[in-house]
Amino acid sequence: MLTLYYHPLACSLGAQLALADAGIPHEAVYVDLAGDRSAYRQINPLGTVPAIRTEAGVLTETTAIHAWLAQAYPEAGLLPKDPFGFAQGVSLLAWLAASAQPARRQVRMPARFTSEAACHAQIQATGRELFERCLQRIDGLLAGKDWVLGGDRPSSCDYQLMVYANWCALDGLALDPWPNFRQLRDRLLQRPAVRRVLEQIDSPLLKQA
């Protein structure tokens, strides 16, 4: 059985939701990112989440995990099966990891970018602007669609977008300026497996929606 290593406020939530909603048997193991991670580093030397233990070994990095799940469990429909559609999904996942996630990190953890405390406010302001631009792009990608890649069911990309909805709820940022994104959040909240995971981790999304 698969083992997913996660933290409730990290980007690992996307893989956790994908596994649960697709009904893929797995064990979810909490990693205390603020505590001693020496034991966990034996599994993932970087000490980050997500990581997933498979029969073939341990995979790290969100984009790689989603791509592997889609190929290992094609019946789940987590990403399109045609090569171009699959690449489009991976492209969106990579953009989220490389653009939206670092922008939000600037807001929450400016000290990671410089030790000069006098620069932190500017780093946060720039990060906030970049993050909201990312939300605008997400909203545009969802225009006229129930799910970001189209189709009749959510994909790995939709589950990963819930990470950003979760972070917005944590930061007190309402999704009203991005109605398509807000509607995606609400559609996913109606799915029992998604809601069950969010209840288990006491997600701030349940208080905002």
Instruction: Give the number of DSSP strands.
Output: 4
How many structural units, i.e. domains?
Answer: 2
Identify the strand order in the major beta sheet.
Answer: 2-1-3-4
Series of H and E elements? EHEEEHHHHHHH
| SSE-based structural type | alpha+beta
Strand content: 5-15%
| Computed Rg | 17 Å
Termini gap:
33 Å
State the major sheet. 4 strands, mixed
> What do the pLDDT scores average to?
96
How many individual helices?
8
In brief:
Helix content is 52%, strand content 9%.
Task: Detail the topology: elements first, then pairings.
Elements: E1 2-6, H1 13-22, E2 26-30, E3 51-54, E4 57-60, H2 62-72, H3 83-108, H4 120-141, H5 156-171, H6 179-189, H7 192-200, H8 205-208
Helix pairs in contact: 1-2, 1-5, 1-7, 2-3, 3-4, 3-5, 4-6, 5-6
Structure description:
- By secondary structure, this protein is an alpha+beta fold.
- The chain folds into two domains: 3-76, Glutaredoxin (3-Layer(aba) Sandwich), CATH 3.40.30; 83-191, Glutathione S-transferase Yfyf (Class Pi), Chain A, domain 2.
- The protein has helices spanning 13-22, 62-72, 83-108, 120-141, 156-171, 179-189, 192-200, 205-208; strands at residues 2-6, 26-30, 51-54, 57-60.
- A four-stranded mixed beta sheet has the order 2-1-3-4, with helices on one face.
- β3 and β4 form a beta hairpin.
- The longest helix has 26 residues, at 83-108.
- The protein is globular, with a radius of gyration of 17 Å.
- The mean pLDDT is 96.
- GO terms for molecular function: transferase activity.
